[in-house]
Amino acid sequence: MSTTPSTTTAETQVVVTRSDESGVATITLDSPANRNALSPALTGQLREHLAAVDTDPSVRSVVLTHSGGTFCAGADLAAAISSGLSPQEASAAGTEAMIAILRAIITSTKPVIARIDGHVRAGGLGIVGACDIVVVGPATTFALTEARLGLAPSMISLTLLTKMDSRAASRYFLTGEKFGPREAADIGLVTITESESSAVAATVERLTADIAKASPQGLRESKKVVNSVVTEMFERYADQRRAESAELFASDEAREGMSAFLEKRSPRWALDPAVS
Q: Is the dihedral of CA 79, 80, 86, 92 positive or negative?
């Protein structure tokens, strides 16, 4: 096994790692302290690794996984508020990074498999939607919580609306409620659910072994076919969704929602004091 470090500077903490074995590049979101939230460091390092594996001829498939009990908590709200940037600047940087990550996974010449046994929230679901195959364990839960923060799943709708059942998208986009592996499989968000955590890695290993039997050209062109609809969605709507997301993120209502979340209180618009 070989391990490839990020090319980030010494001053930047390494929060995404890569290890390679038998043609499989495993990229791990490794920032459990903030539940693998989409901080500038994490998104930057993830983009570096995705770009590197895409041009590496020794890599046949990519496994995207996590350390800790959360795969990805979505946007790093604390970092956004404390960044010193204006809401518009912080929003622009975050939306641009997220669009780039989703596009990189979708257009990668290598199959990308998500291996998850932990919580997935908000923007993390967009990453799940972008992956080609998703295997989850019993500790996995999902929630699209943007509406509770005065936001909307704008950018991540590009990957989710081509994967999720439309009725389910309406429900979970609007309610923000949690749902589990079985529901996620029923609505098309995940590929395989495992009832035992120990089985997740074994299932992914079998999938990567099958992928290893295919030619690089066959994989590349097959992935293009499979992702033709979501690629078209990106070409048609990415700019619009980027603008919508930036506008919402910079709004007063979203600032209130994010502040309420970080302060563990109800936002001013909540009719039920228990909702947060």
A: positive
